[in-house]
Structures are given as structure tokens and as C-alpha cells.
Design brief:
three-stranded antiparallel sheet, 8 strands, mainly alpha, single chain
Length: about 450
């Protein structure tokens, strides 16, 4: 009969991961960085729990072994839907999680979650690379998968060694692994902005000009309300109801100088809770313009026509950053048409031709667009700019004129833990900058 030993399982160093580890009843438990007080305290806790159960693993120490990746994804998604919300509305992070777990579900949905290790993780990463994603996006999505496994470890849904094995997979490095890099976002030339302004609606035009002057983010421009504006001073202060860093407890004052104030005055309404830039205004202006351009007068029945009570696509009460960006993209297409496409379209609209001739030219134009789809996409990509580039343009102009510190403060790039003295000095500096150029 073998002699029973009273020796306790040892606190060991797992050199591959740098973690402390202890093996209890044949199961490895990773404790944290080796040699730290936290890891030693975790070792003491596990040993005490193991001894209290007669040198056996307790129920809380046993993770389920038959849970599939699909079942884990479902459990995590339920948690994420409740956790990543703001005022009852899902945040963008929830959509990012969905994008991150899609290849994981496709490749390993029926695999046991406990068997998902470094090799499988690399396979998911390879699928993202093959999909043409850039390095930053891939690293971000892999980080979200790790976050899911960290939550699952806390909930005792998977063994702790799954997370530790995934932690050994390093992030993709710049210039390696043949992964494309994110294209740098730069400022947009003033002449390109000026060319687009006549091709967009008045609310879009106002937001473009406002961004150029203040350097605010696209989402901050679309969310502006009268209630968020402090107009008591010579320089107005816009405090967005929500912003990128509000979950960190960081304030985001946006200073609005005289030129930007002139733009906003035309959009202020009696209801302070109403959004200033609304798609319904653009729709009304477009309909008015179309009526004014009519070649024939409106008939009595057209004048008596009433709006539908429940239209399929009613105008929204506000833009968001996506609809704003789409409107700018359409403006770029109108401002910078492809020369050959523009020539063919003009021929097809020639009123001197018969209907059959025009119909034939339109069919030829459609066929030409299909044949040259890639060339058209390259042309529009080259001549398109995005609203966030206006923020870069403002940052460049402010930095050239007032220095880097002023640009960082105006754009809200100061750290949340900055001292009160520097915060006061910086806020005054930002206000003075906007008083002069905004």
C-alpha cells in the first residue's frame, strides 16, 4: 500500500507564461505573476479550499468540461447585452464584440470551450488576416475574444488555463506577418471641402463648417442641442451629453468662438432639448427646391396632398456619425464625378435625342459602370474625404498657429488625471484660441 504524504502541492513558476501555478488533483491553477503577493494569496486560498474538501476540488473549483464555444458565446452575449448599454441603448462596443466573435463561431462553434487553446486562437487570427482586416482591427478583435474568456474564467465556465494559454499568443507587430496597416487619417485640403459644400444639404454644410472651426468630433456635431450650450460668455461652451471619454469621468468642454456662433444662431430652436441639425430640415429644403424647379405648375390635387400618417421611412430627428459620413460621401461623388461617367451621363440626358436613343445610352452607361466597377471605386476613394478629417484639419491649423499644447486641449486630448492647476490654465488657453479663430 503506497504511503500517503501530507506534503502540500508546491507553488511553482510556469516559465513559458511567467505565471505562478499550482496543481491540485491533477488540475493546473494559474495564480498570477510569479513571486507577487497577489499570486501567493491566491495560492493560499486555493490550498485552504482544497484541504477543506478533503484534498479534493470543490464544486466552485471545477469548471464545466462539456460547454461548447457556441454555448459560451450565447452566455457571454447575454452578459454583454446587459453590460454594454447606455441609457437603455446598446453601445458601439456591442457591435464590435459581434464582429470579433463571428469567425470564432464559424470555425470553432461546436468545439469544447475547454479545448480552445493557442493553436485554435491563431487559426481565428489567420482567418481575420485572410479577410483583409488591418493589423489594429485584428489585434482589437483578438483582445475582445480574450476579454470574453476572462469573463468566462471569472464565471467558472472554462478552466483558467484556457485564458493563460491565449495570453501567450502575442499581438501582431507592425511590419510583420504580411498584415496591412491602417491608413493614416490626415487633414483634408480646404479646396476639397469647398467643392463639396454646394453639393450637400444645409444641415450637413453647417456641421462641416462647424467642425472645421472647432475641431469637434463628427458624433459631437450631430448630437448638439441647445440645452448643451452655455452662451453666457463671449466664447460659448458646448458640453456634449455623451462623449468618447465620459465613462472615465472626464469632462469634454468644446469652445465655440464668434465665427462658429454665427453658424449656430441660424439653427437654435425654441425647444432646448431638440437636436440642432435634423434630417427633417434637409428633406423639407429638398422638397421646396424641387417644387421651385418645376417646369409646370402644381395641380390642385398636388397642392391638396397631405403627408402620409405612417411613412415607411420617416425623416429621423437627428443625424448620427454614420448618416453624416454617408451624406458627405454622396456630396463627394457629386463634387468629383468620374470624367468618363460624367460624359456618358450627359450624353444620355441630351434632350435632342429620341427616347430610344437615350434609353440605349443609359443601358450602355449601366454596362460601363459594371465593367469598370473597380476603377470607379478607386476614383471615388481617391476623391472622397471623411468628416473626421475635418478634426485633423482643425488640429493642424491650431498647432501651426498656437502650438501643440493648445491643439491637444482644444481637441480634448488631455489626460483625465491632469492637475487642477494645469486644467485651469489649459481651459483658459483653449477658450482664448477659439475666441480668435473659432
Amino acid at each position: 500500500m503506497p504511503r500517503l504524504t501530507q506534503k502540500l502541492p508546491s507553488y511553482r513558476h510556469h516559465r513559458a507564461s511567467g505565471q505562478a501555478v499550482v496543481v491540485l488533483s491533477g488540475k493546473a491553477f494559474y495564480l498570477g505573476a510569479h513571486g507577487t503577493k497577489t499570486s501567493k494569496a491566491e495560492y493560499d486560498r486555493l490550498i485552504a479550499e482544497w484541504l477543506a474538501h478533503g484534498r479534493r476540488l470543490s464544486t466552485s473549483m471545477e469548471a464545466p468540461t462539456d460547454l461548447t464555444v457556441n454555448e459560451l458565446l450565447l452566455a457571454y452575449w447575454t452578459h454583454a447585452e446587459a453590460h454594454y448599454t447606455r441609457d437603455g441603448t446598446p453601445t458601439r462596443h456591442l457591435a464590435n464584440i459581434r464582429d470579433a466573435i463571428r469567425p470564432l463561431r464559424a470555425l470553432y462553434g461546436h468545439t469544447r470551450a475547454a479545448d480552445f487553446g493557442a493553436s485554435a486562437f491563431k487559426t481565428v487570427r489567420k482567418a481575420m488576416i485572410d479577410a483583409g482586416l488591418c493589423r489594429n482591427t485584428i489585434n482589437g478583435r483578438l483582445g475582445k475574444i480574450r476579454s470574453m474568456l476572462r469573463w468566462a474564467t471569472e464565471e467558472r465556465l472554462v478552466p483558467a488555463d484556457v485564458l493563460h494559454e491565449l495570453a501567450s499568443v502575442k499581438a501582431l507587430k507592425r511590419g510583420r506577418d504580411g498584415v496591412r496597416e491602417t491608413e493614416l487619417v490626415g487633414p483634408v485640403p480646404d479646396e476639397r471641402v469647398a467643392a463639396v459644400l454646394p453639393c450637400v444639404s444645409t444641415p450637413i454644410r453647417a456641421m462641416i463648417e462647424l467642425q472645421r472651426l472647432t475641431g469637434m468630433r463628427p458624433g459631437e456635431a450631430t448630437a448638439m442641442r441647445g440645452a448643451d450650450l452655455d452662451r453666457s460668455g463671449d466664447v460659448w461652451v458646448y458640453s456634449p451629453e455623451r462623449h468618447k471619454s465620459d465613462h472615465l469621468g472626464k469632462a469634454r468642454p468644446i469652445f465655440i468662438g464668434p465665427r462658429a456662433q454665427d453658424i449656430l444662431r441660424a439653427w437654435l430652436v425654441a425647444d432646448p432639448s431638440a437636436y440642432l441639425f435634423r434630417p427633417v430640415v434637409a428633406v423639407e429644403a429638398r422638397n421646396t427646391s424641387r417644387r421651385a424647379a418645376r417646369k409646370t405648375p402644381m395641380t390642385p390635387s398636388q397642392n391638396a396632398r397631405k403627408p402620409k400618417r405612417n411613412p415607411k421611412r420617416p425623416p429621423r430627428q437627428r443625424y448620427d456619425k454614420n448618416s453624416y459620413s454617408q451624406a458627405v460621401a454622396r456630396g463627394c461623388q457629386l463634387a468629383f464625378p468620374h470624367p468618363e461617367e460624367s460624359r456618358r451621363r450627359a450624353e444620355a440626358k441630351d434632350k435632342g435625342l429620341s427616347k430610344d436613343q437615350r434609353r440605349k445610352l443609359w443601358e450602355e452607361l449601366k454596362a460601363w459602370r459594371i465593367e469598370h466597377r473597380a476603377d470607379l471605386a478607386d476614383w471615388h476613394r481617391e476623391h472622397r474625404w471623411h468628416p473626421n478629417q475635418l478634426r485633423h484639419s482643425a488640429a493642424t491649423a491650431i498647432r501651426q498657429r498656437f502650438g501643440l499644447e493648445a491643439a491637444q486641449t482644444v481637441l480634448g486630448h488631455a489626460r483625465a488625471d491632469i492637475t487642477q492647476v494645469y486644467a485651469e490654465r489649459d481651459m483658459a488657453r483653449a477658450a482664448s484660441v477659439m475666441a480668435e479663430i473659432g
